[in-house]
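Cross-check.
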Amino acid sequence: MGLMIRSSSIHAAGCYTTSRIAKGVQVVEYTGPRITKQEADARFRNSPTTYLFGIGDGSTVIDGHGTAMYINHSCDPNCETEELDGRVWVMSLRAIAPGEELTYDYNLYDGDEDDARCHCGARNCRQTMYSSEEIARQKKALKQKARRAVEAKRRKAAAVTQAKKGGKAASRSNARKKATRR
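Predicted model, tokenized:
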């Protein structure tokens, strides 16, 4: 199958087909060294660009090398990934014309501070490469963080109010003691 790497309007470089691809075909394998997620996190902590692909339960990662690592994300993809016998294949979802850029939905699942902005330009673009499940998880975590911040602020305000009341009470008590000593 003829594939080539060239400039992409989605992101830097992309993978394009030079021949027609039928629906349901194994287009290319996602290859590279397999490392643990912890090793990948440490190795790529400060790297703005990675070609990592989580497999199995997500504890193992393929550090992408080869043609498949240039396949960009799209919210309206023409391919999908499938794990078969421990190997990751990019499969065509529909017939793909020669010259068309290959894409699949990354469905990122382990978000951090990065918003993983999507630039696919699809009509149904969700503006991020995170999966719907990860988006929901991040929103829930953000709400919990906001609730904790509000609760902490409320506790601090209550403590300040209590301290002011305690201070006044102590002052009145000291004034009474002084008055009775005379």
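The mean pLDDT is 87. DSSP finds two helices and ten strands in the chain. Passed to J.P. for a second look.
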